[in-house]
Design goal:
Blueprint (H helix, E strand, L loop, with lengths): L16 H10 L1 E4 L5 H20 L4 E2 L2 E2 L1 E4 L5 E6 L7 H6 L3 H4 L10 E2 L8 E7 L8 E4 L4 H4 L7 E7 L9 E4 L8 H6 L23 E5 L4 E4 L5 E14 L14 H9 L2
Antiparallel strand pairs: 1-11, 2-3, 4-5, 5-7, 6-13, 7-13, 8-12, 9-11, 9-13, 10-12
This protein binds 2-oxoglutaric acid and fe (ii) ion.
């Protein structure tokens, strides 16, 4: 593979031809300043409000999907992976109706749609690193095979990340392997040990992320989250993901069963 040229774009109301070509070749896109800083603050406070509500109610699962709990730097309880967040926030629900987000479905075409109540809905990930924190990184994985555990074939999907903290690539964060979305199913499943392998790859590409940036990655693209090089407050990294899904409409509800992989996730996702 030749050295990768890092490129970021600006997202207008529709994708440009250049952006579509970049996505088809590489399996991801990085858009700068998708939302302004005051909206970043608004989303952070909404997520905090939802988190406090769920903690107060001792909610452990939403629509069958377990929440991931941890401890913040001050020892207080933290939800480190919150799902279906927009179900509890009209602000975040409104955000998902943004025409620029809706128009990203054109990358997949067909019946591609924002999966607000499918899969895990709007996921809010909260990483922070100190001596007590376990959720600092995520091993190499692809997002699409989770369908297999739901008894379905793998459908094309994308994950859209709204980044709410700054994170320069030299300090960790999301790393991807460009082009690995164009592989056979065997490679999608087994190129690396899903979630277990945390080793850097010479071909991995990182992002200089500013709060308010947006990333899009193909569900078949190999990616990982590298732990922050900082300890404490500077390591804090909050990012929301919403899937764009295809295939049969499959909404989750209160009585949805917990998928098998999520019952065991705590043993492998470090
Ligand atoms: O935190 C990130 O940027 C990526 C998280 C991720 O890959 C996942 O939740 O599947
Ligand atoms: Fe992922």
């Amino acid at each position: 593979m030749k050295p990768f040229e890092a490129t970021s774009f600006t997202l207008g109301d529709t994708l440009t031809q250049e952006q579509i070509v970049f996505f088809n070749n590489n399996g991801f896109l990085h858009f700068k300043n998708f939302i302004p800083k005051d909206i970043v603050q608004l989303f952070l406070s909404e997520a905090k409000r939802v988190e406090e509500f769920l903690l107060a109610k001792n909610v452990e699962k939403i629509n069958g999907v377990p929440l991931k709990f941890g401890k913040d730097l001050d020892g207080s309880r933290l939800i480190q992976r919150l799902c279906f967040t927009s179900q509890y926030s009209s602000v975040l629900h409104e955000y998902l109706q943004d025409s620029r987000i809706q128009n990203l479905t054109q990358l997949l075409g067909g019946n591609a749609r924002i999966g607000e109540i499918e899969k895990d809905g709007l996921v809010f990930n909260h990483y922070v690193r100190d001596e007590n924190s376990k959720f600092t990184s995520m091993g190499w994985h692809t997002d699409s095979p989770r369908d297999l555990f739901l008894g379905q074939k793998i459908n094309k999907m994308l994950n859209i990340g709204t980044h709410l903290d700054d994170c320069l690539q030299k300090n960790g964060g999301l790393k991807v392997l460009p082009g690995t979305h164009k592989q056979n199913i065997f490679q999608t499943l087994f190129r690396k040990k899903q979630f277990i392998d945390h080793n850097p790859d010479i071909n991995e590409v990182g992002f200089d992320i500013e709060a308010g940036d947006l990333t899009v990655h193909d569900g078949d693209l190999w990616h990982r989250v590298e732990a922050s090089s900082f300890i404490g407050e500077k390591s804090r990294r909050r990012v929301m993901y919403i899937p764009i899904v295809t295939g049969k409409y499959d909404p989750k509800h209160e009585n949805s069963k917990t998928p098998l992989y999520q019952r065991f996730a705590k043993y492998v996702v470090k």
